[in-house]
């Protein structure tokens, strides 16, 4: 188990290094490059040359890359040119990370809380109208562009439900402890702040939850269908076990493995979806920074945020793999 | 998933599987699946419309014929009127014609991205699976790196690489993301066949390695690839819309595309919702059509369902 974890972490380091090299080469190969970005198109050749020297851009690319790695090791990933011009890329990431985690967390909780029970019920009523209806519903969920749904929720549902149509901004008078709006209110006893934060989160979280919900629903349904056909379920039934016991101990537990894997893989959809959702609801998170970064081509910020997204994605999937052992004792013995 | 293929149909199918190819028995079941027929009908209409769109469209989609009805200060756009079924867009162009002609570019984006992704994945997957050894290692490490990035984020990053975005860069960005998925699919199925009897038999008969790969192994790997391609057609169209939404799409809107039409009107969503709703509904219906086809194909081509 420990060896497996270490091996996976070493692999992660390899992936991050290769990815950073690719991203670095990509940034340097861009037309214009950082000199034009900083000085503008109308700079004199002399000032361009001076800045090129100053930034070390006249050196071979691998020398530049190693210097970048050296600076990155001490937390210096460069300065933002578009998202928050002048701020360090790392600061931007650290300021914005909690909001994205919070949004993604609520989205995946909604997706699991709705998707797993619905998938189970659909499987139990296979072929019935409830089953067909929810399968078609989940397929439509995948077909809807996330940002369109976000706009519909923002412009239509927020009016109808009396919910705020924008995400919580940073400039509120609640005490900040962790950076998580919902958690800070609980920690400082300002429960109205937590409630307010939840109100701001609910619509974006629903929009972001649609894709993971649809996938979790379908995987749960398929997994439960597989398990229901198994001999041990029939044995449990013939032993006279009650339905709730069979459901909990035999069916759900055995169908959770593929579901947990899927939840891990959905982190990717959450991170990409956050770019779109945060843009629509103006949530000051990492996704919004990425959206602005893509629009304004803020390469230092993009480089750092993409690498961070990759690390989060890979680490979550590692945790998911490790959790298999908790669900399935057979994997522990390997 | 038993999408529209009932248990009774499965049992009926049992009797006639003997001596029938997988494709033939799959087709037999598909013909009776209402869900597949709905998907196929949607896609059929979509393809016919997109081919005929230039002749069917009442007006030139690039002609700003209603421009004098656009009042920027009062945020007014041309309403529906005789000759202009859905009114005009923000630049006074006939919205109905744009929607109709938009189907063509949407089809091109979907098919183009799928074909490029498929070709790339076919080459890499076949190389890795058929040659093995260090080629396999290099290809699969590359695939691992690409798959360790959330896919849509990778598409955004690739699209941001191009200084001058166009329809082609959109297609490329959406396609490259699919390459590792296809590559892994093909490699897996190649590896599984390496020691199977039909390959062994061909080797024993002295068939050349290349011929074994292309005549025996590749055709046997195609069914998961066909399913995946159908599903990618749907995601490609949706992802192209997301690219436009982030300003990474094709800036030239003389020839419209649904994703671009949807992404470009984000700032007027609350005042003119129909400008977004129409292309969005078109995208949803077409994506649903491809998904329905893909899912029923997956089920029909799954040998487990033949039994």
TrEMBL record, chain A:
> Keywords on this record?
Cell membrane, Membrane, Transmembrane, Transmembrane helix, Transport
How does the protein's chain sit in the membrane according to the entry? Answer: Multi-pass membrane protein
Q: Would the keyword Transmembrane helix be found if you checked this record's keyword annotation?
A: yes
Q: Which residues form the ABC transmembrane type-1 domain?
A: 97-320
The family assignment reads:
Belongs to the binding-protein-dependent transport system permease family.
Q: Does the keyword Membrane apply?
A: yes
Mark the transmembrane ranges: 9-27, 103-123, 135-153, 201-219, 256-276, 301-327
Which CDD domains does its entry note? TM_PBP2
Q: Which Pfam families match?
A: BPD_transp_1 (PF00528), BPD_transp_1_N (PF19300)
Subcellular location(s) of the protein: Cell membrane
Descriptive protein name: Peptide ABC transporter permease
Primary location class: membrane
UniProtKB/TrEMBL annotation, chain B:
Q: Which residues cross the membrane?
A: 35-57, 107-135, 142-162, 168-186, 225-248, 276-297
Q: Which domain of life is it from?
A: Bacteria
| Entries under CDD domains matching the protein | TM_PBP2
Q: Does the keyword Kinase apply?
A: no
Name of the molecule in the record: ABC transporter permease
Keywords on this record? Cell membrane, Membrane, Transmembrane, Transmembrane helix, Transport
Q: Where in the cell is it found?
A: Cell membrane
Q: Which family, according to UniProt?
A: Belongs to the binding-protein-dependent transport system permease family.
Organism taxonomic ancestry: Bacteria, Bacillati, Actinomycetota, Actinomycetes, Pseudonocardiales
ABC transmembrane type-1 domain location, by residue?
103-294
**The keyword Oxidoreductase appears for this protein:** no
Matches recorded under InterPro entries: BP-dependent_transpt_permease, MetI-like, MetI-like_sf, OppC_N
- Membrane topology recorded in Swiss-Prot or TrEMBL: Multi-pass membrane protein
SUPFAM superfamilies found in the cross-reference section? MetI-like (SSF161098)
- Entry's Pfam families? BPD_transp_1, OppC_N
């Amino acid at each position: 188990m420990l060896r497996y974890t270490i091996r996976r972490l070493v692999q992660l380091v390899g992936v991050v290094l290769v990815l950073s090299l690719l991203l670095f080469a990509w940034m340097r190969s861009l037309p214009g490059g950082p000199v034009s970005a900083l000085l503008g198109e109308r700079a004199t050749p002399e000032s361009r040359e001076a800045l090129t020297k100053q930034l070390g851009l006249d050196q071979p690319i691998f020398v530049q890359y190693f210097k970048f790695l050296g600076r990155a090791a001490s937390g210096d990933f460069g300065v933002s040119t578009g998202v928050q011009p002048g701020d360090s890329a790392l600061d931007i990431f650290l300021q914005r990370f909690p909001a994205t985690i919070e949004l993604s967390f609520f989205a995946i909780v909604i997706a699991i809380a709705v998707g797993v029970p619905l998938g189970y019920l659909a499987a139990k009523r296979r072929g019935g109208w409830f089953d067909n209806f929810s399968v078609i519903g989940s397929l439509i969920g995948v077909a809807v562009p996330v940002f369109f749904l976000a706009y519909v929720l923002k412009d239509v549902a927020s009016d109808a439900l009396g919910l705020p149509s924008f995400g919580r901004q940073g400039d509120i008078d609640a005490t900040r402890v962790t950076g998580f709006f919902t958690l800070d209110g609980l920690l400082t006893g300002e429960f109205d702040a937590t409630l307010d934060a939840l109100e701001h989160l609910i619509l974006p979280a629903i929009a972001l939850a649609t894709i993971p919900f649809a996938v979790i629903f379908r995987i749960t349904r398929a997994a439960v269908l597989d398990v229901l056909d198994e001999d041990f379920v029939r044995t449990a039934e013939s032993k006279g076990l009650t339905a709730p016991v069979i459901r909990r101990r035999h069916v759900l537990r055995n169908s959770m493995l593929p579901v947990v894997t899927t939840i891990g893989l959905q982190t990717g959809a959450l991170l990409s979806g956050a770019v779109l959702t945060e843009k629509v609801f103006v949530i000051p998170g990492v996704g919004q920074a990425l959206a602005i970064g893509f629009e304004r081509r803020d390469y230092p910020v993009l480089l750092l945020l993409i690498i961070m997204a990759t690390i989060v994605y890979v680490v979550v999937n590692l945790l998911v793999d490790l959790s298999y052992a908790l669900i399935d004792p057979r994997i522990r013995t390997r | 998933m038993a999408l529209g293929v009932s248990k009774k149909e499965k049992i009926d199918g049992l009797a006639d599987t003997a001596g029938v190819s997988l494709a033939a028995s799959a087709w037999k079941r598909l013909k009776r699946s209402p869900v597949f027929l709905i998907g196929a009908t949607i896609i059929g209409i979509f393809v016919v419309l997109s081919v005929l769109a230039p002749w069917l469209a009442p007006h030139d989609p690039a002609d700003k014929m209603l421009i004098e009805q656009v009042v920027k200060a009062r945020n007014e756009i041309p309403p529906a009127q005789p000759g202009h079924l859905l009114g005009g867009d923000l630049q006074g162009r006939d919205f109905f014609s744009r929607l109709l002609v938009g189907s063509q570019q949407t089809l091109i984006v979907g098919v183009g991205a799928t074909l490029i992704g498929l070709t790339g994945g076919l080459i890499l997957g076949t190389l890795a699976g058929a040659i093995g050894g260090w080629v396999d290692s290099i290809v699969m490490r590359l695939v691992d790196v690409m798959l360790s990035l959330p896919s849509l984020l990778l598409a955004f990053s690739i699209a941001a690489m191009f200084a001058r975005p166009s329809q082609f860069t959109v297609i490329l960005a959406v396609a490259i993301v699919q390459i590792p998925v296809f590559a892994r699919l093909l490699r897996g199925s190649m590896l599984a066949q390496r020691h199977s009897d039909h390959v062994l038999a061909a080797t024993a008969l002295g068939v050349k390695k290349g011929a074994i790969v292309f005549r025996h192994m590749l055709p046997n790997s195609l069914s998961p690839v066909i399913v995946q391609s159908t599903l990618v057609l749907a995601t490609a169209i949706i992802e192209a819309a997301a690219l436009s939404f982030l300003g990474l799409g094709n800036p030239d809107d003389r020839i419209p595309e649904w994703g671009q039409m949807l992404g470009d009107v984000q700032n007027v969503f609350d005042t003119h919702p129909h400008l977004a709703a129409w292309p969005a509904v078109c995208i949803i219906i077409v994506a649903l059509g491809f998904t329905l086809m893909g899912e029923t194909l997956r089920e029909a081509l799954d040998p487990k369902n033949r039994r």
